[in-house]
Amino acid sequence: MVSDTASDVLDGQAESRITVQIDVWATVPDDADNIREQALDAVRKLAPSVISKTQGYDPDSRLSRATLEFQVIA
After folding, report:
1. 7 CB-near residues (< 8 Å, 6+ apart)
2. Residue 42's pLDDT is what?
3. Which Pfam family would be a valid example here (predicted)?
């Protein structure tokens, strides 16, 4: 979990919007992308919104990163 933002109403807390980040590391960029898509499929039941997909590379480890970030309402 990256963050948790609560919404308040007169009777108390209404909902909580949680931001989740999943990082996938692999030696091949396509492998990282494929695993990221599998992770997204696995969390579909949570009804994710504000979905963001980014890519990166770490030259020290020589690994590619595929990041999935999304929000869910709890």
Report:
1. 13, 14, 15, 16, 17
2. 98
3. Tail_completion_gp17
